[in-house]
Design goal:
By secondary structure, the protein is α/β, with parallel strands linked by helices. Helix content is 41%, strand content 9%. Strand 8, helix 15 and strand 9 form a beta-alpha-beta unit.
Length: 424
């Protein structure tokens, strides 16, 4: 923890609030009353223009055993800021445009879910638009999200363009640039914006084009919101139930396959990543070998195995092991270490629908075994409130992890904010 606290202090000194917040949250996840971490969380809140949230953290830091003198000084300053703060809601409707993250299907959906939570807690109307940088588009300017899900609100990107004199956050966006993809996403002013930078903005339209995770926003949910104090799993189920409404054609295809191949049989769904995951995650091969061990210990004589995989080679392995008890959907798969969503020959819209078919079918199985470092497995684990021991993840769920790396690499990423008025 000492290394993480030193890192948090260093990032805070350089004004990188996103990185400082992640480091202090990692400490607080293991020691919820750690005074130095609470003090840093309070400074971050104050610098975001949230003095009331800062007061809570500073009070906890003061009340903790071995409370910090610095926290007491910061608490007095935060109280003065709160007293001087001008209250009042912004006039008119405010929007959050959620653009495509541009990677795997459920990684993109998880960015949408994180941004939807941001919209919830900042009283913004969400508008999703997956443009040409989505790996699941037909190549046109149509919103690819709507190939798979119903709209999350009654507004579209076209409606945002028609607004009178809107003000945008970050300032890199204008009405004319709304359709741009990967616009200063990784480099330049307004790049790599973490969720927390949006928390106290009053602009008409905020635009999110960089990954926002539900986990990053959980500590910032206000007390009046129904998700305050809830678990990450509860937050995901709330958001998916409220916003993720698959297209009827997709649900019909899921139901047809289920009735033909799964209904009436004890079924264990298995999601296994091959292809590029073996390069991205060094221990993938070792994890994949464990699937057969776990299955051998749980598979009943009459059970079926519903296999979800992007790698045709693993279909062969499972069929050699379990014969015609293995069920797979007819979908696009790779035969090498190139991810199918990177393949130039893939039908991208069909690929997105195939991923949804497999995901929602797996969520209806009796048991599930997956790799938590895959967004697909992590989502299946959350889409269903599985009975105890019926969901086994062979690696920790990626959706519970904060990604520090993306906010510290490079020199021109998130805003660098002056912190000299605060003691840490």
């Amino acid at each position: 923890m000492e290394d993480e606290l030193r890192n948090a202090s260093g990032y805070l000194a350089r004004g990188n609030l996103a990185a400082a917040d992640i480091c202090c949250r990692q400490v607080l996840g293991r020691a919820s009353g750690h005074p130095a971490a609470l003090n840093i969380a309070g400074i971050v809140a104050a610098l975001l223009g949230l003095p009331n949230a800062a007061i809570v953290y500073f009070e906890q830091a003061c009340a903790a055993e071995n409370g910090l003198r610095h926290a007491r000084d910061n608490l007095l300053r935060a109280r003065r800021l709160a007293a001087a703060q001008v209250h009042g809601e912004p006039h008119g409707e405010r929007f959050l445009l959620i653009k495509a993250w541009g990677y795997g299907f459920w990684s993109d959906v998880n960015h949408v879910l994180g941004a939807l939570l941001l919209a919830e807690i900042t009283a913004r109307i969400p508008v999703v638009h997956w443009g040409r940088n989505s790996r699941f588009t037909d190549g046109s300017d149509r919103d690819a999200f709507e190939f798979y899900f119903q709209p999350v609100s009654e507004y579209s990107i076209e409606d945002l363009y028609l607004l009178e004199k809107p003000v945008f956050f970050p300032a890199k966006w204008t009405k004319e640039k709304l359709w741009l993809e990967d616009h200063a996403k990784w480099r330049g002013c307004g790049s790599r914006l973490a969720a927390l930078y949006y928390l106290n903005r009053r602009e008409t339209v905020a635009v999110s084009d960089f990954y926002i995770g539900v986990v990053d926003l959980m500590p910032w949910i206000p007390r009046q919101h129904p998700l305050h104090g809830k678990s990450i799993a509860e937050a995901y189920r709330f958001l998916t139930a409220k916003y993720l409404r698959p297209r009827e054609s997709i649900l019909a295809a899921v139901n047809d396959f289920f009735e033909q191949h799964i209904a009436g049989f004890h079924t264990i769904a298995v999601h296994l990543r091959g292809s590029d995951k073996q390069i991205e995650m060094g221990d993938t091969a070792a994890i994949n070998r464990r699937y057969l061990e776990v299955l051998d210990g749980t598979l009943k004589p009459a059970s079926r195995v519903f296999l979800l995989t992007d790698d045709a080679r693993w279909v062969t392995v499972f069929r050699n092991a379990y014969g015609n008890r293995v069920i797979v959907t007819d979908c696009q798969r790779t035969h090498d270490d190139t991810g199918i969503h990177y393949s130039k020959s893939a039908d991208r819209v069909a690929l997105g629908r195939e991923i949804m078919h497999d995901t929602y079918l797996a969520a209806r199985a009796d048991r599930f075994i997956g790799n938590g470092q895959s967004n697909v497995s992590a989502m299946i684990a959350l889409l269903t409130d599985w009975p105890p021991d019926n969901c086994v993840l062979l690696a920790p769920p990626v959706l519970y992890e904060r990604n520090l790396r993306v906010f510290v690499e490079g020199v021109d990423g998130p805003p660098q904010i002056c912190t000299t008025d605060w003691q840490f």
